[in-house]
Design a protein that fits this description.
The protein contains 4 helices and 6 strands. It has 136 residues and is α+β, with helices and mostly antiparallel strands. The termini are far apart. The relative contact order is 0.19. The model has no long low-confidence stretch (mean pLDDT 90). InterPro entries: DUF1499 (IPR010865).
Length: 136
């Protein structure tokens, strides 16, 4: 019985280690779907707002100030940037890509592991937009 319990604990620790330490595949995550519209998805969320280059830079600063968030690819000067935000305890990664498309800003946040993010990405994006003065 102790052996089985020990193996279960070891499996949980290994799984948590993989989630926290698995590298991000930039080619997979630094991209956007062809069509981005305002919608909540089972595994994330999309938002589109009217924006210019200054708005892009302001939102980038807000996102970078978010705890446990860092850039994995891109820059505002390139017109597209992707961030990873990790949960506090286990370190589950969520990826958010921000793209300037003409006079709009497209935001696409999604999870890496699982099938449902339970609204976490929508709440995070909407919080950023509220700080920007674009949310409601």
């Amino acid at each position: 019985m102790k052996l089985i319990f020990g193996l279960i604990v070891l499996g949980v620790i290994a799984g948590a280690g993989y989630v926290r330490l698995a590298p991000s595949d930039v080619a997979r995550w630094h991209q956007m779907p062809e069509m981005v519209t305002d919608q909540d998805l089972a595994n994330g969320a999309m938002r589109v707002i009217a924006a210019d280059a200054i708005t892009f830079e302001r939102l980038d600063a807000i996102i970078r100030a978010t705890p446990r968030t860092h850039v994995i690819a891109g820059a505002p000067s390139e017109g597209m940037i992707t961030y990873v935000t990790r949960s506090a305890v286990v370190g589950f990664p969520d990826y958010t890509t921000l793209r300037r498309a003409g006079d709009q800003l497209e935001i696409y946040g999604r999870l890496r592991f699982g099938k449902s993010d339970l609204g976490v990405n929508a709440a995070r994006i909407d919080g950023w937009l509220m700080r920007l003065g674009q949310g409601g």
